[in-house]
Structure of Rhodanese-related sulfurtransferase:
Amino acid sequence: MAIHEYKPEEVQDMIKENKDVQIIDVREDDEVAQGMIPQAKHIRLGDIPEAANNLDKDQEYIMVCRSGGRSMNAAQYLDQQGFKVRNLEGGMMNWDGETQPK
């Protein structure tokens, strides 16, 4: 099944509207140190299978990485586990919203 992608503007609008947005950044530590979406939770790609036990299947999660590839892998994995997931189209390279270092 194809994973739906949100455009960065759509996610920024959701954040502005204070929607309950669950964003997971799957990049490595040195990448998030340079800035991540303030509302995002950092779970490295390699830690996703273990972290999945602590995620809520009733929530929708938006996966983020640098360019959208690793986060798509994470989204596909979580989708197979029965989670509702979306991917951020183009990843952080396309994100021009607010960021902060982890």
The chain has one domain: 5-94. Strands lie at 5-6, 22-25, 41-42, 60-64, 84-88.
